[in-house]
Amino acid sequence: MNKDQSSGSNQAVLLDLGAVIATVTVDEPRVLLVGPEELNSRPRLPSGPFDPDSDRTMEEGLRRWVTDQTGLNLGFVEQLYTFGDRFRDPDARAGGPRSISVGYVALVRQSAAKRPAGSDWFDWYRLFPWEDWRNGIPAMLENLLQPKILSWIDGGESSKARKGRQERADVAFGFSDAGWDADRVLERYELLYEAGLVAETVTDGRIKTGFDQSDAHTLTGLPLHQDHRRILATALGRLRGKIRYRPVIFEVMPADFTLLQLQRAVEGLAGAPLHKQNFRRLVAAEGLVEPTGQFSSETGGRPAELFRFRPGVVRERPAPGVRMPRGKRTK
Question: 50 phi and psi, to 5 degrees?
């Protein structure tokens, strides 16, 4: 082990700004990723270096290089977290600089979801297939992941370790009567990582995965560069929680929309089904939208009334959002 690895006192540090850029298109939540899908070149989040000489703030730097690289003008932007775990960049193990990334989540409207060169929009549930409960409990969760998680629990070195693992799984995956909490996306991903059930475990040189590597990306989601799927999990959990008390869902909606389009967007991001009439009553009670007086003929049937977000709601209510139900497991 060299001096930099043992003490870290002389190790250089690289600071970049990472962006989770999300939208909802055709009812599906999508995230912008850069790079080809090749075995040794995994897609990654858009990222760029922070320039302390020219960027007044980190957010300004983020907006600048995202526009330069992708042509997208970001609307809603919020800082997520600082990701700086040692060896998150494998090159650091060989004495390379330590990589620290300040993560942000940004939302763009459906109409602005262009495809920049070298990038593409990926279905969020292709990355986290166990998170999509819109059609009930995901089959892969019950038939594939749960048995392997239970096996991981049984593999604890002591009764205390096994109890701790069981408690984590009960809370994260809703194995207990508490039910599924959609916001715990990061906790679920980190448990799967620790249990060796995602491909990044092998990439990071931590432990052997519980899957054949040729099948891992089809079984437990598309693996990404370094810890970028962990950053994505953090962002999805943040957005799921935020739609309950802030009107962020309208950041991905077109200016005018039908109530069905709005419901599908909320369901897509939350990964949960909503009762049509209950959803409409909730939206009306919260005063989130107002009619435009226009109708859409693109529904394929009876023209549907168009609505728009009512900005005044943020001054009238302390937490104007869309309340979501908790997922429940069927016995």
Answer: -85, 130
